[in-house]
Batch of 2 targets.
Target 1
Amino acid sequence: MGENWRKEYLRSLPAVDAVVTVYKRTHNGGTYPHTLLVQAVQEVVEQLRQQVLTSREEKDLLAVGLGTDEVAVRVATWLSQIEQPSLRRVINATGTVLHTNLGRAPLALAATEAMAQASRYCNLEMDLVQGTRGSRHAHVEKLLMQLTGAEAACVVNNNAAAVLLALNTLAAGKKVIVSRGELVEIGGSFRIPDVMAAGGAHLVEVGTTNKTHLDDYRRAVDEDTALLLKVHTSNYKVVGFTATVKMAEMVKLGQEVGLPVMEDIGSGLLLDLARYGLEKEPLVAERISAGVDVLTVSGDKLLGGPQAGIIVGKRVFVEQIKKNQLMRALRPDKVTLAALEATLRIYLTGHPLQQIPVLAMLSMSADTLRQRANMLAQSIRERAEGKLTVDVREDVSFVGGGAMPLTQLPTTVVAIRPTQVALQEYVERLRTGTPALVGRVQDDWLLLDPRTIRDTEEEEVILCLM
Ligand SMILES: *Cc1c(COP(=O)(O)O)cnc(C)c1O
């Protein structure tokens, strides 16, 4: 019986038509399509109905306006929210360079310009000199050959697709031999055994988790074997007593038993970064010169380009891969190819360490980072007028994207704590602002790592923080 108030509230929810009328009157007739407006009103009224139904006491509802005018105001807010793009720019202050949730590699300026050009009509599959049909792979194949020393190359949607397509082409219905120490899972959904099954190949595991020898591979070869596969353990390391087979040895075995050798290398490193304090990662060109037949690589990890899967290797195999029917389902679009071409061209003729953001961030010196952190902290302090406590401290940045899991790059961060609101509330406001700002929360401080903040973004960071 004590629920009479609830019935009263339910009865006083306004009719959809009435709200539509009020909205149109108060918004110059309304600029949105009528059906969208009706949908907005229905959703808003339904949300209010649910609120009434789930409130425990009448006083929870006292502040909720159910008048037609008040509901029309809510409708206006609902409509302005659907105008906000879902995919928005984020300033990455986390210090994780290849942040998978933030879209991995930020692209070089030349790549974004090439994307805009290619987004119109372009010669994606036309040879402009001959006036005949061309191949979409041609725009990057030559560059990839020059940069890696490979005989041929093609590109698909991502590295997972590259592995799937290569396995399907080279080993469908046949056996593929892999070390037990290399059955990796990347990012929760890419697992070598599952990709193998999806490609129609049969997995033969050899060796143990920590040690696999050449003889383990040799003994497993039989007449149903189609391929020897190595997988780079990008996101973990087996330490202690370990043994893996070097590519050159695998290639020798492959020649001995008459089987191709494939490697999924993941990261796609084209330049040696060891002198910047980064772990030794395999270089693409190194593997090609060791004689690997097929190599698959990510476009948006250490290569610093768009999401893509790159297949390089011996011409005879790459040509088979290009002709696989699945290529049609996995091929990249013109915008991706444009970004990849522009990125690769920087490696060939430009200044990759300056022009490719991922490489610039990874090679930034500790001195530069300290200076940038100090200057940023200074500006924030001056503008915050006591609303923020600002500190500077030594910390570490990470490579991310499942690459170089053990590398901790020394950095200096700006540590911030709001004095008038709770940290949680402040961080949420920054995350939902325009642009969004995402940092790292640690021990009640918000940490901003200048490594992943472009210097052109520093002024925006300060504005976001105020
Ligand atoms: C990252 C990675 C993949 C998956 O690549 P995507 O481009 O994300 O599809 C596959 N294999 C290895 C070894 C990797 O490091």
Target 2
Amino acid sequence: MVKTDTVAIKVQKTTNSRIKELDYNHITFGKLFSDHMFYTDFKNNEWTDATIMPYGPIPMSPATSALHYGQAIFEGMKAYKNDKGEVFLFRPLDNHKRINISAERMAMATIPQDIFMEGLTQLIHLDRDWVPDTDGSSLYIRPFIIGTDEFIGVRPSDNYRFYIITSPAGKYYNEPVKVLVETNYIRAVEGGVGYVKASGNYGRSLFPAKLAQQRGYHQIIWTDARNHRYLEESGTMNLMFVIDDVLITPPLGDTILAGITRDSVLTLARDWKMKVQERKISIDEVLDAHKRGTLEDAFGTGTAATIAYIAQIGYEGKDYVLPPVEGRIFSNRVAQELDNIRKGKVEDIHNWMYKVG
Ligand SMILES: *Cc1c(COP(=O)(O)O)cnc(C)c1O
């Protein structure tokens, strides 16, 4: 459990709130940041100086190691406000576990649960007016850790800084996406860092994504690095199919990020007694199901959109059109159920919601 009396956080409140800049009905994602941020420094082998202060630029040396060698990891999560104005986080302890899995693989300092949770909850509580309560909206939360040694030799940094910044997010319009099955570039390979939320994974994905966009696709479906046959993830989301009433998703491993939305969707499917398979799925199998008319649903899962419906799949110069989104039973039901859980409209039987304040 989280001990609330062991982490002392110095709080410097802003005297100049920017909350008036927030138009709750027209929120653009990721551009406006809440009044405060949290940080703590790792030095001499311990985390110290936990501080909440006004959001603002971070002074740093041009030799800061993260800028050169990429010891930079992050998390993405959301806070929601229910009808009573109470603020809840969705499965924050899972984000804490995951940031430490990332830290270990990147040879970085891990962050203790009490510091992570106390920094997070105090920050969100202080900036609770920034959590929008309009339909489908939330406060996006971005925890991250960077190596901060002022040193440009290649070795793990001795010093780190953990930050949390937050940004209001409006209703996400789940426009169905056209995806391209990528058979040249790769996102991840066995032995690599695909299962880690490392900044570099995103940097490397932008060029192939840009090429796909130039060809009229929204996103890439990544395939396995060896044969480009097995489907792995869709952009920066986990990937799921419903074929013949069975929910199929690639199994966790080195090349798949263990999405919290992925796990939540699988859990609800199992609650509903749906058949679930975590196994490899090839492009041939998907196209064969498409041909036979048994491909009922395809979608990505992730914190930003929850569910991103796949409308069309491009592969080797041909486009395959999937059934209309309105008629998709599973993805619509699961998207609605997750929304209801987050807004407190149905019982939270898995204890996913974590109350702030
Ligand atoms: C963050 C991320 C996801 C989704 O994870 P959630 O916990 O569901 O938000 C999926 N794939 C990749 C590559 C990611 O970085």
